[in-house]
Amino acid sequence: MTTTPHAPRSRLETAPVPRRDFLGLAAFWSACAAMGFALLGAMRLPRAAVVPVPSRKFRVTLPDALAGGEAFLPPDRTVALFRDTGGVYAISRVCTHLGCLVNTDPSGFHCPCHGSRYAADGTVVKGPAPSALPWLAVKKLGPGSYLVDEAKAVAAGTKEVA
Ligand code: FES
């Protein structure tokens, strides 16, 4: 048995890749390509069309000890609720100037941002606020329990039966 000597390879000729290495490399690059396409596909998935927004309606139970004309401020809400002889009503605490949250005081409301003052019924006493604080819809649900809609303004003076 004779062996033929290999002819010397040119330096420009690439070394032959063994079949096992070739299949391994092909599998590796195929997997990389599949993951790349999957990633591109995931990035093109449609975004949610509906963004969850907390409801602007909420239930509130007024404390029995709430004095007439005294403000009740539900936590995490932007309204002040009042109860007097005429009924229950809600006034927005969002300043009509630039949207700061106004504070309540015995004479009405005052804005900590630029100093606007509002009377107890929400009308502007001192600017720069351009308009009165809006009154909001209130609906009685049961004894001491009310549904307030922060998104629905009503005419000033509108009260729900206590
Ligand atoms: S935001 Fe209230 S006075 Fe400017």
Descriptive notes:
The protein has 162 residues and is of the alpha+beta class. The chain has one helix spanning 19-43; strands at 57-61, 79-84, 87-92, 103-105, 108-110, 117-119, 124-126, 135-142, 145-154. It contains one helix and nine strands, in the order αβββββββββ. Strand 4 (103-105) and strand 5 form a beta hairpin. The protein is rod-shaped. It binds FE2/S2 (inorganic) cluster. FE2/S2 (inorganic) cluster binds next to loops.
List its traits.
single chain, 162 residues, alpha+beta, 5-stranded antiparallel β-sheet, 4-stranded antiparallel β-sheet, 1 helix, 29% strand, binds FE2/S2 (inorganic) cluster
List the SSEs and their pairings.
Layout: H1 19-43, E1 57-61, E2 79-84, E3 87-92, E4 103-105, E5 108-110, E6 117-119, E7 124-126, E8 135-142, E9 145-154
Antiparallel strand pairs: 1-9, 2-3, 3-8, 4-5, 5-6, 6-7, 8-9
The site of FE2/S2 (inorganic) cluster has 10 residues, from loops.
